[in-house]
Design brief:
The structure holds two protein chains of two kinds. By secondary structure, chain A is mainly alpha-helical. Chain A has 18 helices and no strands.
Chain lengths: 480, 1002
C-alpha cells in the first residue's frame, strides 16, 4: 500500500484501533461465538442468581403495590408523581444511546459504532422494558392500564383523549420499543445464522435455525438485509429525537412552573443521550473485561463515547443555565421561585446541587485525553453521570410539584422502601436480561465488525461483487 | 379510615360484633330458617322489652343482609305507600341537637328511614339555616360502631328489665343524686320536679365542663340579678370582643356569624347587587340570598385576647394580652369611658384604649362589648356596665333571666359522695370523671357510692367508674325536647329507631319517677300537651312557637361593680394557662368522631392532636419552638404544673399569641373511648381546677426532652407575596374600587379551540366572599358528609393524602409576633380552560354542557396527571382503599346519591352535582318551562358548603341567569379570579377581603 489516498489512509487509521491485534474473520467469529458455546460457567449462575433475586424482589414489590394501592409509595398531594415517573424517564433516557449508536451513527457512517452497537441496542431494549413497567404500575388501577391504548373494549366505548401528552407518550414509547426490537432483531439475523451453522446440538441448531429466519448469507439476503437495516435506521433516527421530546411534553405542555418550558425537548434529548452513553460505557467496560473482547471493543470506542458524554454534558449544563436565565428574564414570579428558591435553596437543594455536580462538573474531566482514556476513571464518571441524570429527572418532577402556585398546598415527597426496592429491582431486571443476552446471543455484531476490519478493506467492493454474483452466478457462501 | 392508631391491634374486650358475626350465631340462623321470627305476631300489640330486643336483633340482621336499615315498625312492607314517599328520594325532618344547654335546630335528610345529612333549620334562631362542624358531624356519632350498646352491670351484660327492677324496687329514692348536663329539656325539667317532689332527700346537680356561667356571675354583680346578655350584631357598628371567640366557640355563634358577616359588606357598593327582594319567596331554604344588604356599612371589630381565635382573625384590630390583663384592659377602658372611677393601670395600651373608647362613644347604642366565659365575673360586671354607659343595653344588648350555679352544686355533690350522704347516683350523659375540676377528684368520690349508674352514648371514663352503665340513645333515635338559650323550644324528633336498644334520659328518669317504662314520645307529648295540629306544626317547623324569653330589665349598679373591681385579685405572676374548648371535639364528647378528628383545627391546622400554644417569643425563650424538617413537624414537649398538678403537652408556636401565656385545648387525651379517639392528644382537664376554670396564673412550665410528631394539613403559612388573598381596607376600597382586578387586565388572547356554547341552558358558577368567611370549617364537614369523603387517619394526612374536597387555606400576613390572619375556602374551581381536562389520557375528567368539570370515576385509571397540573391543588387521589376498614354500620352514613370512590381514582369537588341533578329532575317532573336561563329558581340549588355556611360566604348558582345572586356578585368590584394570569378561567371567583381599621390606630 504505497500510494494510499487520503481516504484510505483515514480508513486505515480508523480501522486499525477498531479491532486490534489484527484478527482475521475467523478470529472474530470465534471470539464472539464462543461466548455462547462454551459450557456455562459457575460465575454465570451466580450472576443470574443475584440479578434474578433482585428482579424477584421487584416482582414482590409490584405485587404488593397492586394489592394495596399506589399509596405504598411516597407519592402524595401535591407530589402526584415521584420515583415512578422519575425512573420511567431515567430508563427511557438510558435507551437513547442504543438507538443513537445504531441508527444515527450508522447513517453518518461512523464505523466505530460497529463493535458496540449490538450491546447498545440490547441496552436500549432492556431499558425500555424497565421503563415500560412504570407507566403500567404507577396508575391507581393497574388492571385498567390498558385503557391507555386505543383498543376497542366494551368499557370505554369512546376514544382516548388525544390532547393528553400521556397518550402521546404511550404511542411514542410503544413505537420506540417496537422499532428498537425490530432493529435489534434484524441486525441479529446474520449472526444467529452463524451460531446456527456452528451449533453442535440439535436443539441449538433448531432454535437458531428458527430465529435466523432461514438466513443463508446469499448476496440477495445481504442486499435485502442492508436495505432493511438502512430503512430501520432511518425509522429509528427520528425516534431518537421524538421519544424524549414527547416524554418531555409530559412536563412541557403542563402549566406547572418548572415544567412549562419550551427548552425541554432538546434538553431532554441531550440528557438522554448523555445518560445513555454513560450507561454504555459502564456496561462495556465490564463486558469487554469479562468476555475478553478488548481487541474488538477498543479504547477508540470508549474514547469516542466519552467525547459524546462531554459534548452532551455541556449541552445539559447550558440548558440548566438557560432555565435560570429565562426564569429571571420572564419576570414570572412562580417560575423564579421554582428555580431560585425551590431548586437552588429549597428543601430539595441537595438534589439540585447533586445533579449539577454530577452532570455539569464531572464530564468536564473528559477534556483531558489522559482521563478520557483511563478505564477506571471513565467507569466512575459514567456512573456519576447516571446518578446525576437520575437526579435531574427527580429534580424536575419533585421540586416543581412540591411547591407550586398556592403555598397552602405545598408539601414534600419522601420515598418509601417500596419505592426504593422497586427501583433497585428494575436494575435487577435490566441486568438479568443482560446476563441472558451475553450468555445466549452474539454480544458483538460479527458481520458488521468484519466489514470494518482491515482485512475487509481489500474487499471494499465485495458487496457489489456479491450483487453481481447473485445476478446469474453462484451465490457466495456465508460470510466467514 | 385506615391505619388509625390502635385499630389494627385490638386487645381486651371486642369493640363491635360485626354483622357477619351476628349473622352466624345459631340464634340468627334459627331466625332466618323460620318463616316468621320469634314473637313477630306480637309486633302490633306489645311493646315489651323482650319483643323489642328481638326485633332489634332481627332488624340488625336485616341491616347486615341489605346494608340498609329501617325503623323496626316499618319492616312490614307497605301494602300501600303513603304520600310523599318515593324510593330513592330523600325526606327532610326537623329536629334539634341539644348541646351543653343550647339547642341547634336542624333539618335532617333521610333516605328510606336512614338519616344521612344534617343541615341547619332556617326557621330556628340558633342555626338559622346553618349548621356548625359539630352538628354536621353528629350524624357520624349515630353510626359509631364503638357506641355504648349494652346495659353493663358489674362488668357483665345486663338487661333493661333488670335495670327497671333495680330502679323501681330500690324503695323511696333515699339519698339519690342525679348528675346531668344543663337541663334544657322541658320534659326532663318536669320529670326532675316530679322526682324532687317525690324524694325529698334527692338532689339534682348540673355540670357542664364548658360553660359560660361567669357571665351570669357577672350579671349578679352588676344587676343583682342573674341575667344572660343577647347581642344584636345587625345593629352594631363597633364590636369589642374581650377574650371571646364569639364567632366560633359559643353555642349561639351560628346566628351571630350570620348577622355579623352581613355587616362586613362595605358601604361603597355602587355596582354591587342589591339584595334580591324576591328571594324570600322561594321558600325557607333560600336563606342564602338576600342577606348581603349593605344597609349600614361595614362594622368594626376589636379583639383583645391571648390566644389567636377566629374572632381575632376576623378583627380589624387585635390586641394580644395575657389572659389576666384582659381584666386590666377592660377596667381601664371602663375608666376611660367613665363607667367606673379609678386610676388606669395599663400605660402601654393607652393609645389603643383611647382610640377604642372614642370609637365606642361615637357609636352609642350601636356598639357591643362582650367578654368570653374564661374571664372572671368582675370583667363581665364591668362589661355590663360599659354597655349600659354606652347606651347599648336595650339596643344591641338585651338580657333574659337565667339562673345557673352548677359549680357550687357539683362541689356539694362530691362532698355528699365522700361523706356517704349520697346513697346512689345516676349520671345522665356528660363525662365528669374525665372533665370535672381536677381538685374535686370526682372519680375517687364516685367509687365510694354503693349504687352508681351512668347513662351515656359511649363507654367512657365515667361509665367505667360506675357500677352500672346504660346505653343512651343518640338524639336521632329518641323523642325529646330542648330549649335554646333565648328560650325558643323545639321537639327533638327521632329519625330512626334506636340501633342498639338504647334509652333516652327522659325514659330512664321517667322510669325512676313513675316506676314503669314510658315511651319518650308519650313523655314529651304529656309535657307539651299540644293539640294535634299544633304538635304537627311543631314537628314540621322544628320550633314551638311563642317560647322565646321576654327581655328582662337590667339596671347596673356602679358601686357594686366598683367593689368587685377593687376586690379583683392581682395575677399571681408566672406563666398563665388558658383552657379552650376544642373547636373540633368541644369538651371531649366528640373525641370518637373521625370526621372531626380529621378536620384541621381552624387556626393551627393540626389534625388528630391537641397542642399547647405559645407565642414565638415565649417559645424561643424556652427553646420549645417546634422543629420542622422535611419529614414533618415535631412539637417539643413541655410539662405544665398548676398547684402540683401536671400535664405534658407538645408546643406549637402560634404567631400572635400573647407572651408569657400558654393555651391548652380541652377535649383530648381521653382514655376510655372507642378506637378513633384513643390515645389522641393530652388531657388538659388534669390541671384545670376550681377557681381557675377559665385560666390559671402562676403556673410553671418546664421544657421536657421528648418531642411529639404533629400533623397539619397546611405546612406553609406565608403567601410569598403572591396575589392569593387580595385584601384592602374599606377606605382603600372606597378610593380604588378596582384594586382587586387591576392586574387582570390584558389583551385578548387567541385560542386554537372553539369555546363551549353556553348560550342556552345554565352554566354554574360560584362566588366566595372572603370578607364574610371566618374560617370556621363548617363547610369542610358538610362536604365530607354530603359527598362521602373518606377519613384517612393521621399517618395518611402526614403524607399529604387528606381527602377533603374543600379546604380552608389560612395565611398569616404581617409580623410573626403579631400577624393578621386571612382565610380562603378552596375547592375545585371548575375551570373553563381546565388544565386537568386536557392532560387526562382516558378522558375521565371532562367538561359538561353546563360548564362543570365532571369526574367520571369509572373511567379514571389514576395517572394523577390532572392533580399535578391543577394550579389550585384541589384534586384528591385515593392512594389506598380508604373505605376498606369501615364497619358495616358506618357505611350507613353514606349519601346514596354520591358514588363511594374506590382506590386508585381521582376525586374532587363537583359543585354538588347530585343536587343539581335532583333539581333538574324536579324541574322536569314539574314541567317547568325552560327559560333563557334554565328552569331553575334562583337559590333553588345550594351546594352543601353553601347551605351550611353561617356567614353566607359561599354563593353558588347559574351565571347565565342575570337574576341569580352569583351573577350579581360576579359583577361586584371586589370579584377577582385567583391565578388569573394562567387563563384557566375558573368558575369560582373570590370577593376580595376588606378590613375596616380605625384611622386613629393606623
Amino acid at each position: 500500500m504505497a500510494q494510499l489516498t487520503h481516504d484510505q489512509e483515514l480508513k486505515n487509521k480508523l480501522s486499525a484501533p477498531l479491532a486490534t491485534g489484527n484478527p482475521n474473520f475467523h478470529d472474530v467469529t470465534e471470539a464472539v461465538s464462543i461466548i455462547s458455546e462454551v459450557k456455562t460457567h459457575r460465575n454465570w449462575y451466580i450472576a443470574l442468581a443475584i440479578t434474578g433475586s433482585i428482579t424477584g424482589m421487584m416482582g414482590l414489590m409490584i405485587a404488593y403495590l397492586i394489592v394495596t394501592g399506589v399509596g405504598v409509595w411516597g407519592n402524595n398531594a401535591p407530589v402526584g408523581w415521584g420515583w415512578d415517573i422519575t425512573n420511567f424517564v431515567f430508563w427511557i433516557g438510558i435507551g437513547h444511546a442504543g438507538t443513537l449508536i445504531s441508527a444515527i451513527l450508522f447513517l453518518f457512517r461512523q464505523k466505530w459504532r460497529t463493535s458496540i452497537n449490538r450491546f447498545a441496542e440490547a441496552m436500549t431494549l432492556f431499558a425500555v422494558v424497565c421503563a415500560a413497567i412504570y407507566p403500567g404500575i404507577h396508575v391507581g388501577r393497574p388492571w385498567r392500564a390498558y385503557w391507555l391504548f386505543p383498543i376497542p373494549n366494551e368499557f370505554l366505548d369512546m376514544w382516548q383523549n388525544f390532547r393528553s401528552p400521556l397518550l402521546w407518550d404511550v404511542f411514542a414509547v410503544s413505537t420506540y420499543g417496537t422499532v428498537s426490537a425490530l432493529f435489534w432483531y434484524v441486525g441479529l439475523v446474520p449472526d444467529l445464522a452463524t451460531l446456527r451453522d456452528r451449533a453442535k446440538t440439535k436443539a441449538r441448531k433448531l432454535s437458531f435455525a428458527i430465529a435466523s429466519l432461514g438466513w443463508r448469507g446469499s448476496a440477495t439476503h445481504w442486499k435485502n438485509y442492508e436495505k432493511a437495516y438502512m430503512i430501520l435506521a432511518g425509522l429509528s433516527t427520528p425516534l431518537v429525537l421524538s421519544v424524549h421530546t414527547i416524554v418531555s411534553f409530559d412536563f412541557a405542555t403542563s402549566i406547572l412552573p418548572g415544567w412549562h418550558t419550551t427548552i425541554f425537548p432538546p434538553y431532554f434529548v441531550a440528557g438522554a443521550i448523555f445518560s445513555g452513553f454513560a450507561m454504555v460505557v459502564t456496561l462495556m467496560v465490564i463486558a469487554r473485561w469479562i468476555y475478553k473482547v478488548e481487541h474488538l471493543v477498543t479504547m477508540t470506542h470508549l474514547e469516542n463515547m466519552n467525547k459524546v458524554i462531554l459534548a452532551t454534558g455541556c449541552i445539559v449544563g447550558y440548558a440548566y443555565a438557560t432555565e435560570f436565565f429565562i426564569a429571571w428574564y420572564s419576570g414570572n414570579p412562580y417560575e423564579s421561585y421554582v428555580f431560585f428558591v425551590s431548586r437552588a435553596s429549597g428543601p430539595y437543594w441537595w438534589a439540585y446541587w447533586s445533579m449539577v455536580t454530577c452532570n455539569v462538573i464531572s464530564p468536564q474531566f473528559f477534556w483531558f485525553k489522559k482521563l478520557r482514556t483511563n478505564i477506571p476513571f471513565m467507569f466512575v464518571i459514567s456512573i456519576i453521570v447516571n446518578i446525576g441524570m437520575w437526579f435531574e429527572r427527580f429534580v424536575i418532577i419533585a421540586t416543581s410539584l412540591h411547591r407550586d402556585f398556592l403555598p397552602s398546598s405545598w408539601g414534600y415527597f419522601r420515598p418509601t422502601f417500596v419505592d426504593i426496592c422497586t427501583f433497585i429491582g428494575t436494575f435487577g431486571l435490566f441486568l438479568t436480561l443482560f446476563v441472558f443476552f451475553t450468555r445466549f446471543l452474539p454480544i458483538i455484531a460479527i458481520g458488521e465488525v468484519k466489514g470494518m476490519m482491515a482485512a475487509a478493506a481489500h474487499e471494499e467492493h465485495y458487496l457489489d461483487e456479491a450483487v453481481a454474483a447473485s445476478q446469474g452466478k453462484e451465490p457466495v457462501g456465508a460470510a466467514h | 379510615m385506615i391505619q388509625i392508631q390502635g385499630i389494627g391491634n385490638q386487645t381486651g374486650p371486642k369493640f363491635w360484633r360485626s354483622l357477619n358475626e351476628l349473622a352466624n350465631t345459631p340464634k340468627f340462623q334459627q331466625w332466618v330458617a323460620r318463616e316468621f321470627p320469634d314473637g313477630a305476631t306480637d309486633i302490633m300489640n306489645s311493646n315489651s322489652r323482650r319483643n323489642f330486643l328481638q326485633l332489634m336483633a332481627a332488624s340488625m340482621g336485616l341491616a347486615g343482609l341489605t346494608s340498609c336499615r329501617r325503623p323496626v315498625e316499618k319492616i312490614l312492607p307497605h301494602a300501600k305507600s303513603f304520600e310523599g314517599i318515593a324510593h330513592g328520594n330523600s325526606l327532610h325532618f326537623a329536629t334539634a341537637m341539644p348541646l351543653a344547654g343550647s339547642a341547634m335546630g336542624l333539618l335532617v335528610e333521610s333516605f328510606e328511614g336512614r338519616p344521612v345529612k344534617i343541615e341547619g333549620n332556617p326557621g330556628h334562631p340558633a342555626s338559622r339555616g346553618a349548621a356548625n362542624m359539630l352538628a354536621q358531624a353528629s350524624v357520624l356519632n349515630l353510626y359509631d360502631p364503638d357506641r355504648a350498646k349494652d346495659v353493663v352491670e358489674g362488668g357483665k351484660k345486663g338487661t333493661w328489665d333488670e335495670v327497671a327492677e333495680a330502679m323501681t324496687q330500690a324503695g323511696p329514692l333515699e339519698g339519690v343524686r342525679v348528675l346531668s348536663g344543663y337541663v334544657n329539656s322541658p320534659t326532663l325539667a318536669g320529670l326532675r320536679a316530679q322526682l324532687l317532689a317525690k324524694a325529698p332527700t334527692a338532689k339534682w346537680v348540673e355540670y357542664e365542663p364548658v360553660s359560660d356561667e361567669t357571665i351570669l356571675d357577672g350579671s349578679r354583680i352588676a344587676f343583682n340579678d342573674s341575667l344572660r346578655p343577647h347581642y344584636d350584631f345587625k345593629k352594631a357598628n363597633v364590636v369589642l370582643a374581650l377574650d371571646s371567640d364569639f364567632l366560633q366557640l359559643d353555642n349561639r355563634s351560628l346566628g351571630w356569624i350570620k348577622d355579623f358577616s352581613a355587616r362586613r359588606s362595605p358601604a361603597h357598593h355602587e355596582a354591587a347587587p342589591a339584595a334580591t327582594p324576591a328571594a324570600g319567596a322561594h321558600g325557607a331554604n333560600d336563606h342564602a340570598a338576600g342577606d348581603h344588604a349593605p344597609a349600614a356599612g361595614m362594622n368594626r371589630l376589636y379583639a383583645v385576647e391571648s390566644n389567636y381565635s377566629l374572632t381575632g382573625a376576623t378583627a380589624d384590630h387585635r390586641l394580644r394580652v395575657k389572659p389576666s390583663d384582659v381584666a386590666n384592659f377592660v377596667f381601664d377602658l371602663a375608666r376611660e369611658l367613665g363607667a367606673i372611677t379609678g386610676l388606669k393601670v395599663l400605660g402601654q395600651q393607652d393609645k389603643f384604649i383611647k382610640a377604642l373608647a372614642k370609637d365606642l362613644s361615637a357609636n352609642k347604642g350601636k356598639a357591643i362589648v362582650l367578654a368570653g366565659p374564661r374571664q372572671p365575673a368582675a370583667v363581665h360586671a364591668v362589661v355590663a356596665l360599659i354597655n349600659q354607659t354606652l347606651g347599648n343595653a336595650g339596643e344591641t344588648v338585651t338580657y333574659t333571666k337565667e339562673d345557673r350555679r352548677s359549680m357550687a352544686s357539683l362541689v356539694e355533690l362530691v362532698k355528699d359522695l365522700n361523706s356517704g350522704a349520697a346513697k346512689s347516683v345516676l349520671i345522665l350523659g356528660g363525662n365528669p370523671v374525665y372533665d370535672a375540676p381536677a381538685d374535686l377528684a370526682f372519680g375517687d368520690a364516685l367509687k365510694k357510692v354503693a349504687n352508681s349508674a351512668y347513662l351515656g352514648a359511649e363507654s367512657n371514663e365515667t361509665a367505667a367508674a360506675c357500677k352500672c352503665s346504660l346505653p343512651e340513645s343518640h338524639f336521632f333515635e329518641a323523642w325529646g325536647d330542648a330549649t335554646h338559650l333565648d328560650g325558643s323550644a323545639s321537639i327533638v324528633q327521632p329519625l330512626i329507631e334506636p340501633l342498639f336498644g338504647t334509652k333516652s334520659a327522659i325514659e330512664v328518669v321517667g322510669l325512676l319517677v313513675n316506676g314503669k317504662w314510658q315511651s319518650g314520645h308519650d313523655l314529651v307529648k304529656a309535657q307539651w300537651k299540644l293539640a294535634d295540629a299544633a304538635w304537627k306544626k311543631a314537628l314540621h317547623d322544628g320550633l314551638i312557637a311563642g317560647n322565646a324569653a321576654a327581655p328582662a330589665k337590667a339596671t347596673g349598679d356602679k358601686t357594686r361593680v366598683e367593689a368587685a373591681v377593687n376586690a379583683h385579685p392581682k395575677a399571681k405572676g408566672g406563666m398563665e394557662v388558658s383552657f379552650f374548648p376544642s373547636a373540633n371535639l368541644f369538651d371531649g364528647r366528640f373525641a370518637n368522631n373521625a370526621w372531626l378528628q380529621e378536620t384541621p383545627e381552624p387556626m393551627t391546622k393540626i389534625v388528630w392532636d391537641n397542642v399547647a400554644l405559645m407565642s414565638p417569643k415565649t417559645a424561643k425563650e424556652m427553646d420549645v419552638a417546634e422543629v420542622v424538617d422535611n419529614v414533618g413537624m415535631y412539637g417539643k414537649k413541655i410539662a405544665i404544673e398548676i398547684d402540683g398538678r401536671r400535664v405534658e403537652a407538645p408546643v406549637l408556636v402560634m404567631p400572635g399569641h400573647a407572651d408569657g401565656a400558654v393555651s391548652l385545648t380541652l377535649g383530648y387525651g381521653r382514655t376510655a373511648i372507642g378506637r378513633v379517639g384513643k390515645g389522641i392528644g393530652y388531657n388538659a382537664y388534669a390541671v384545670r381546677v376550681l377557681g381557675s376554670m377559665g385560666f390559671a396564673s402562676g403556673a410553671t412550665v418546664k421544657k421536657l426532652d421528648g418531642t411529639q410528631y404533629l400533623v397539619t394539613t397546611q405546612e406553609h403559612h406565608n403567601q410569598e407575596g403572591r396575589p392569593i388573598v387580595k385584601e384592602n381596607t374599606e377606605a382603600g376600597y372606597a378610593k380604588n374600587q378596582h384594586f382587586a382586578t387591576h392586574d387582570e387586565e390584558h389583551v385578548e388572547l387567541f385560542s386554537l379551540f372553539d369555546g363551549y356554547d353556553y348560550s342556552k341552558g345554565s352554566q354554574w358558577g360560584m362566588a366566595v366572599d372572603l370578607n364574610a368567611c371566618i374560617g370556621c370549617n363548617a363547610c369542610m364537614v358538610a362536604c365530607q358528609s354530603e359527598n362521602n369523603v373518606p377519613v384517612v387517619g393521621k399517618e395518611q394526612v402526614a403524607k399529604g393524602r387528606d381527602m377533603h374536597w374543600i379546604r380552608l387555606d389560612r395565611y398569616f400576613t404581617g409580623a410573626e409576633e403579631d400577624p393578621q390572619v386571612v382565610y380562603q375556602p378552596m375547592a375545585c374551581q371548575q375551570c373553563e380552560n381546565a388544565p386537568c381536562e386536557s392532560v387526562c389520557p382516558v378522558a375521565a375528567t371532562i367538561h359538561s354542557p353546563e360548564g362543570l368539570n365532571d369526574m367520571a370515576y369509572n373511567r379514571c385509571v389514576g395517572t394523577r396527571y390532572c392533580a399535578n397540573n391543577c394550579p389550585y391543588k384541589v384534586r384528591r387521589f385515593n392512594y389506598l382503599n380508604f373505605h376498606k376498614d369501615l364497619e358495616e354500620i358506618t357505611k350507613m352514613v353514606h349519601n346514596p346519591n354520591v358514588s363511594v370512590r374506590m382506590r386508585g381514582v381521582m376525586e374532587k369537588c363537583t359543585y354538588c352535582v347530585q343536587r343539581i341533578q335532583e333539581a333538574k329532575i324536579k324541574a322536569k317532573a314539574q314541567g317547568r318551562a325552560k327559560g333563557e336561563a334554565g328552569p331553575y329558581k334562583v337559590g333553588e340549588i345550594l351546594t352543601a358548603c353553601q347551605q351550611t355556611c353561617p356567614a353566607d360566604a359561599i354563593t353558588f348558582g347559574d351565571i347565565n341567569d342575570p337574576n341569580s345572586k352569583v351573577a350579581k356578585l360576579k359583577k361586584d368590584h371586589r370579584n377577582y379570579t385567583l391565578l388569573h394570569e394562567l387563563n384557566v378561567k375558573p368558575r369560582t371567583t373570590y370577593l376580595a377581603k376588606l378590613r375596616n381599621p380605625n384611622p386613629e390606630l393606623a
